[in-house]
Amino acid sequence: MVKIVSAIFAVLPKGLLVFLYDAVKPFSQKMFLGIRYCILKNLCGAVGDKVIIGANVTFKNWAGLVIGSNVSIHDGCYVEGYGGITIGQNVSIAHQCSLLSTSHTWDSIDIPIRLNPVKKEPLSIKSNVWIGCGVRILGGVTIGGDSIVGAGSVVTKSLPKNGIYVGSPAKFLKAVYPAAKTAKEPEFYSINSYK
């Protein structure tokens, strides 16, 4: 059924798909999860299998998003892909998180800060990562695999794999797995791996 719906959506204009996504965005029933997934498959750079998008998740700049398989993005998240966001496999992003791949500059004093150019800063989340609720992840960051980012944390710098990170800014608390049992990092998704 997913393949049929995705094929139908593939012939629709992108603007209409975004409108349709916004129309089904508030609903949490299983049918709407499926519709959102099919829309994602047609608007993002690449999307794997078994991707669940909760209610009221906002996406901006869809083409810059690459999402692996077995990924869940829960209710109320904000995902801005202008600078490029890549999410590996087996990633869970809890509710009310923000993923940003740009930042504002303030180089020109002659214009207001909000009108200065935006800088692209790619964001990468490796495989087997759990992002707690209310986390903010800024552009230019890589979160290593086998990691957990605690609720309410703000990630401003890259985090090595196999760690639990908490706070604002997020800091290492302890390892998720003992060093001898660190899971092998699966191949990281990229737009090219889907061509």
Keywords:
single chain, 195 residues, alpha/beta, seven-stranded mixed sheet, five-stranded parallel sheet, 17% helix, globular, disordered C terminus
Protein model, in words:
The chain has 195 residues and is α/β, with parallel strands linked by helices. Helices cover 17% and strands 28% of the residues. The protein contains 3 helices and 19 strands. The strands form 4 sheets. A 7-stranded mixed sheet has the order 2-5-8-13-16-18-19. A 5-stranded parallel sheet has the order 1-4-7-12-15, with helices on one face. Strands 3-6-9-14-17 form a 5-stranded parallel sheet, with no helix packed on it. Strand 18 and strand 19 form a beta hairpin. The C terminus is likely disordered.
Provide mean pLDDT, rounded: 91
Low-confidence stretches: 185-195
Q: State the helical fraction.
A: 10-25%
Number of strands: 19
Give helix and strand order, one letter per element, not per position: HHHEEEEEEEEEEEEEEEEEEE
State the helix count: 3
The largest sheet is: 7 strands, mixed
Structural class by sheet pairing and helices: alpha/beta
Provide the spatial order of strands within the biggest beta sheet. Answer: 2-5-8-13-16-18-19
Overall body shape = globular
Short overview:
With 195 residues, the chain is α/β, with parallel strands linked by helices.
Task: Write the topology of this structure.
Elements: H1 2-10, H2 14-24, H3 30-43, E1 46-47, E2 51-53, E3 58-60, E4 65-67, E5 71-73, E6 78-80, E7 85-87, E8 91-93, E9 98-100, E10 102-104, E11 118-120, E12 123-125, E13 129-131, E14 136-137, E15 142-143, E16 147-149, E17 154-155, E18 164-166, E19 171-174
Parallel strand pairs: 1-4, 2-5, 3-6, 4-7, 5-8, 6-9, 7-12, 8-13, 9-14, 12-15, 13-16, 14-17, 16-18
Antiparallel strand pairs: 10-11, 18-19
Helix pairs in contact: 1-3, 2-3
